[in-house]
């Protein structure tokens, strides 16, 4: 079992930056691929980014490519999402998730059903 706790959300002006963190419990963090998803009010949860167990492979949604960077530190059991050039349409609750198995390939890692554990979410609000 893995417990995930996100932090780093907040209110930022358009064009600004935030770095989200997701701390995982347990000793097997490096056996999980990790993903970030977001959910805006009235919308479905959508894929943002994913990173493989070693950190060598990453995937991004087209809407964030070039602006967001996912990374992980397996020694610290933490995955990060650096968000730059934020836009009002990035406003959402951001969730991290852990994937306990399966191939690290699209479209699989971009689907919520591929993940076994979820954090409680952190709010990101971007003002115009």
Features of the shown structure:
128 residues; 4-stranded antiparallel beta sheet; 7-stranded mixed beta sheet; mainly beta; globular
Please explain how this structure is put together:
- This protein has 128 residues and is an all-beta fold.
- The protein is built from no helices and eleven strands.
- It has strands at 4-7, 10-13, 18-24, 33-39, 46-51, 58-60, 68-73, 78-83, 92-99, 117-118, 122-127.
- Strands 2, 4, 5, 6, 9, 10 and 11 form a seven-stranded mixed sheet that branches.
- Strand 7 and strand 8 form a beta hairpin.
- It is globular and about 40 Å long.
- The mean pLDDT is 96.
- The percentage of residues in β strands lies in over 45%
Mean pLDDT: 96
- Overall geometry comes to globular
| Helix-strand makeup class | mainly beta
Q: Strand count, sense and closure of the main sheet?
A: 7 strands, mixed
What are the secondary-structure elements, in order, as H or E?
A: EEEEEEEEEEE
Distance between the ends: 40 Å
The beta-strand count equals: 11
- The percent of residues in helical segments reads under 10%
Radius of gyration: 13 Å
User: How many helices in DSSP terms?
Assistant: 0
The low-confidence runs, each spanning 5 or more residues with pLDDT under 50, are none
